[in-house]
Predict the structure of Spore protein YabP.
Amino acid sequence: MNRYHKEIRNHHTEKEHIVKLNQRKILEITGVKEVDSFDNEEFLLQTVMGYLVIRGQHLQLKNLDVTEGIVSIKGKIYELTYLDDEGQGKAKGIFSKLFR
């Protein structure tokens, strides 16, 4: 198998990452690898595109499908932020706040 076929196969096995926000009240996300932490004001998700922080008010985990990598969150969404490689320290900072 040549390199071109390997790249195509890897592309198809990686889950697609889609973020759909409806009326700032229902957030549906695909391509989620793991839910690292959550409470009623903040979620930290590991996605195929990096860490994603969701902030809002009265946030609730509406649906979680680990095998398909789908998460639905209900509440008032204020902010969606991706943490890049240099932002990994921010993700650790979030954890340190949780486990003090």
Summary: The longest helix spans residues 3-13. DSSP finds two helices and six strands in the chain.
